[in-house]
Amino acid sequence: MGPQRATKPGFGAEPRLKMHTFPLLPQQASVQAGQVDAIFFFMVAVTAFFSLLIAGLIVFFAIRYRRRHDDEIGVAIHGSLVLELMWTIIPFFIAMGMFGWGAKVFFDLYRVPAGAMEIFVVGKQWMWKVQHASGQREINELHVPAGRPVRLIMGSEDVIHSFYIPAFRVKADVIPGRYNTLWFQATTPGRYHLFCAEYCGTKHSGMIGSVVVMEPTEYQAWLSGGPTSDSPAATGEKLFTSLACVTCHTGDAASRGPNLAGVFGHEVELQGGGKVVADEAYLRESIVNPQAKVVAGFPPIMPPFQGMVSEEQLLQLIAYLKSLKGPAARPGAPPQQK
Ligand code: CUA
Predict the structure, then answer these.
(1) Residue among 336, 207, 164, 316 nearest 260 (CA)
(2) What is the spatial distance between Cα 287 and Cα 179, in angstroms, rounded to a whole number?
(3) Atom of ligand 1 nearest to the CA of 204
(4) Whose CA is nearest to atom 1 of ligand 1?
(5) Is 249 touching ligand 1 by the criterion CB < 6 Å?
(6) How many other CB atoms are there within 10 angstroms of residue 18's CB atom?
(7) Distance 157 CA to ligand 1 centre (A)
(8) Per-residue pLDDT of the chain (338 residues; tens, 9 = 90+)
């Protein structure tokens, strides 16, 4: 999949995207794109209407009510309650309508549908590294199937980047030290621009790539083609051994660390009270800075792995932990609440 990306030398190198025209807006290629554009155009229309109305009235009144003689003095106006109410109530409902509509689109954009397929993305100066659940890796390209919700779990190796797919109308910052997620459902097979939308250093403008939307069957074929590498979960399992995590998180009753089987997505009781849901962010924090939230009943003896594992390895470790579907209550299991 890589070689055809090499730029041909000289004149007329083949354009990777066919730009027959210069469109004002990028193509709509996700289920979200139409919703975002609709509210955008509505707000532009409302703003343009009132701007023109007000500017027009200023000019009209300036001419209509101009002073015609030196001794012409205007009549004092004592206001009109009806008028005041009208220009308060009508804009109020327009603004609340925009707010309600905007909030709905916002929530739709940020609430990931259940069953979305997960893909890991790591941003670093100056490239996007992608790994699919099957193990397939790519750089500055993202292959996804059409018609399926896709959730990107994104981290940064260095500075703040921003993952932006204009044709999907989705963008999210990629921040060092935490995970950010972004979801979309592509509708139309094709190749779309991928940009870094946060200034991140000298070659920020070169931190670009493309998103390739394929028919689901083609995507499956693409996944099985190409160089095979271990799935993130399998690599994570090896790391779990090589980093010696396994010596404390043995999973039996005498274990010095909590049993991690089935922990993902469940509530964990913490030392000193309080609970936390073991999501990706919590697992990440517990690896890089274990003292931040210690599981109740265990001594705070785990060393921090900050700087010892890369963002990619963290994602692989987490993929491994997510794959451990343990029975709910095993001896030595961390206390879990319903
Ligand atoms: Cu990465 Cu700009």
Answers:
(1) 336
(2) 14
(3) 2
(4) 161
(5) no
(6) 9
(7) 12
(8) 444 444 434 343 344 555 455 667 788 899 999 999 999 999 999 999 999 999 999 999 999 988 888 888 878 888 889 999 999 999 999 999 999 999 999 999 989 998 899 999 999 999 999 988 888 888 999 999 999 999 999 999 899 999 999 999 999 999 988 889 999 999 999 999 999 999 999 999 999 999 999 999 989 888 887 666 777 888 888 878 877 787 778 777 677 777 788 788 888 888 878 888 888 888 888 888 887 888 887 777 787 877 777 778 888 888 888 888 765 444 444 444 33
Ligand 1 pocket check for 129: Cβ under 6 Å: no
- All structural domains of the chain, each given as residue ranges with its CATH number in brackets, are 31-66+74-110 (no CATH), 117-225 (2.60.40.420), 232-323 (1.10.760.10)
* Å from CA of 91 to ligand 1 middle: 39
Please check whether residue 135 is in contact with residue 232, taking contact to mean a CB–CB distance below 8 angstroms: yes
Cα–Cα dist 39/162, whole Å: 23
Decide: 200 in ligand 1 pocket, CB within 6 A. Answer: yes
